[in-house]
Amino acid sequence: MIEKALKGNPAYWMWLAFLSAFIAVGGICYLRQFLFGMHLTGMGRDLSWGLYISQFTFLVGVAAGGLMLVLPYYIHNYKAFGRMTILGEFLAISSIVMCLMFIMADIGQPLRGLNMIFHPTPNSMLFWDMVVLLGYLGLNVICGWVILTAERKQVKPPKWVYIFVYISIPFAVSIHTVTAMLYCGLPGRHFWLSAITAPRFLASAFAAGPALIVIACLIMKRIAHFDVGKEAINKLTTIIMYAALINAFFVCLEFFVGYYSNIPGHKHALEYLFFGLEHHGHVYNNLVPFMWTSVVFCFGGLGLFAYMKIANWSTDFFIGIGCALIFIALWLDKGLGFVMGGLAVNPLDEVVEYIPTANEIGITLGIWATGFLLVTVLYKIAVKVEHEVEG
Amino acid sequence: MDKQRRKFLKIAGATALAGISAPVVVNLTGSPAVASAAKNQASAQAAAAGGHGDDTAPKGVKLGLLIDMRKLYGHPELLDKATQACNKAHNIPKIDNKKSEIKWIWKTPFANAFTDQSTSNASYTTRNNDFLVLCNHCAEPPCVRVCPTKATFVDKKTGIVAMDFHRCIGCRFCMMGCPYGARSFNWMDPLPFIEELNPDFPARMRGVVEKCNFCGERLALGKEPACVEAVKEAGAIIFGDLNDPNSEIRRILDKEHTIQRQAAYGTKPSVFYIV
Q1: DSSP, res A351
Q2: pLDDT of residue B29
Q3: Are B101 and A48 a contacting pair at CB < 8 A?
Q4: Which residue in the set B103, B112, B145 is minimally distant from A350, CB to CB?
Q5: How does B28-64 read in b/e, with b if 16+ C-beta sit within 10 Å?
Q6: Is the CB of residue B181 less than 8 Å away from at least one CB of chain A?
Q7: How far apart are CA B7 and CA B12, in angstroms?
Q8: By the 8 A CB rule, do B238 and B75 touch?
Q9: How far apart are alpha carbons A324 and A330 in whole angstroms?
Q10: How far apart are CA B109 and CA B76, in angstroms?
């Protein structure tokens, strides 16, 4: 089926070329980092995780978000998601590939990566994260490919593949739970040391992943004449709304714990993220505009969806805007705020701010572009197969 | 024919999978791989040479360090001396950049060292003196718990939390886990920044984490840790086996009131302070 990705109109090739330019720049930036060292990043002794790990954390969520399609379709037999489920599976594949690339970009000795497998360490959450990520990647490759092949031949998918589909459901939950556990079991990092981290991650994942899928569907409807149907989009926007609301609720709970208990350690990260943290006469507030943008976008998107549901009116354009607002809001919250906020105050009570370098941003954009390229190619194959079946 | 080929592929696939996963299974079920044999031997020698090494002791050796700050107040030069001795002994690069610097033992105000014990209205002495901080060689080290490759581990013979620079993949998870900020990462090649290369201790490569090792290499030769030796005349740092009832450190711990950094985290630090 790969050959289907090799035929396309000029716009398709232009888009791939556009992404390839970013990939090339990212590749050169990575080569620089590989040859000269990680001091080319904005990370440092006090802030030793940065953009790479935060993007990884966010994208694990996007991958897990595919669950919101797989679950209703395969478990509840919700037929409206029929044409869309494969998109969720393919998005998961691309996201996990991006996650793995971000991990490799973040490792100081990438050539030793296999040490994780040669010296398996069950007490390390990173080991389990690798296990579940590779497992989820494998499951999605198998399920996506087998089901699409069956569709192309217009036969029922083989029975055995459903075992993998059902296994992939707890795996989707586990990838994001284990990623949360990377953070929430660490002493001395108050912002992360919270039992609500994993549920919060899942809630934001179940909004961010489907939001991206809706945007992709709307784009494909326009340019590839591939319509997943109004009912599917409507149901998905409802799911996005609930998930985003639950996420916002969880964030508010963090505020309650921090501010009502009035323990400085629990407040520092929230203060730094939303109001600016005063320390020895200097106010640190790099991320404040980003976080308030996140709040405004999140409630803006929710308001827009709510209006469309109440007024029983919607257009593709406004659905797209709503999804984009929520996706960006969650990216700012988890892809920037969560990791940087937790690290703003180091264990010795010093405040350090993080500013990613151009080289680091180049690598990050390159990896995102690789993911977009992969998802474009996979969606192209999926859409072609659908068109072929419909004749 | 077709059926046979499928059967062959199935067997071949299963065999390949078993081959790949074998090391995982062996390692998960076998004894934990920790230090190299040579390292274990060295620490055994260390314990013997130190005079407080009794491998048959019920709880084994647990090396610890006690800093008597009463003898260091008003003498910042002694703190610097200890730091310099460590830097020299361990080829620690001098990088004048807070972002990329490497620190094994350094001085910092009380409020930074003891974030949970800093009080309002602290005494003049507390406010105006720096305190020495280093890796606490915890009995329950979070860094060891989170390391995905066992590159950092507790040396069972001494209780030292040690690093295997050759196994570290540089994920910096241990730095996230350490609630003391005691670990440094080689963001760049440290070699050009080493002022005077000590041939008796390895220099590191970039991309790996490093930290205080309680001078395991000096203990192996029967010497004391470099920082202890540097301020010997003040008698401000006492080093020894916490489990040995006859060790000097044990006697002082029994007698004096000491504090530990972040005791509430349950990491059981092996570094004690008399303030």
Answers
A1: B
A2: 41
A3: no
A4: B112
A5: eeeeebebeeebeebbbbbbbebebbeeeeeebbbbb
A6: yes
A7: 9
A8: no
A9: 10
A10: 11
Q: What one-letter code names the amino acid at A329?
A: A
> For the segment A260-271, what is each residue's pLDDT rounded down to a tens digit?
999 988 999 999
Report the alpha-carbon distance of residue A106 to residue B150 in Å, rounded.
19
- The candidate with the shortest Cα–Cα distance to B164, out of B137, B202, B129, B134, is B202
Specify whether the CB–CB gap between A235 and A81 falls below 8 A.
Answer: yes
- The C-alpha of B189 sits at a distance from chain A's nearest C-alpha, in angstroms, of 7
Residue ranges of B 87-106 with Cβ closer than 8 A to chain A:
98-103
Q: List chain A residues with CB under 8 Å of B150.
A: 119, 121
- Cβ proximity of A85 and A79 under 8 Å: no
Which pTM does this prediction carry?
A: 0.88
| Structural Rg of chain A based on CA atoms | 21
Its sign, for the CA torsion A83, A89, A92, A93, is negative
Retrieve residue A213's tokens.
């899928």
Under a CB-based contact definition with an 8 Å cutoff, are residues A367 and A55 in contact? yes
Distance (Å) of CA A123 to CA A54, A104, A367, B27, B153:
22, 21, 30, 13, 12
B133: tokens are 């901080």
Given a contact cutoff of 8 angstroms between Cβ atoms, the answer to whether A356 and A285 are in contact is no
How far CA B87 is from CA of A135, A277, A349, B103, B183, in Å, comes to: 45, 34, 24, 8, 14
**What amino acid occupies position A68?**
M
Residue with tokens 């990260």: A269
The answer to whether the CB atoms of B148 and A44 lie below 8 A apart is no
> Are the Cβ atoms of A187 and B187 closer than 8 angstroms?
no
For A12, the token pair is 């398709």
Digit-coded pLDDT (tens) for A328-370: 999 999 999 999 999 999 999 999 999 999 999 999 999 999 9
Contacts of A120 in chain B (CB under 8 A): 23-24, 27-28
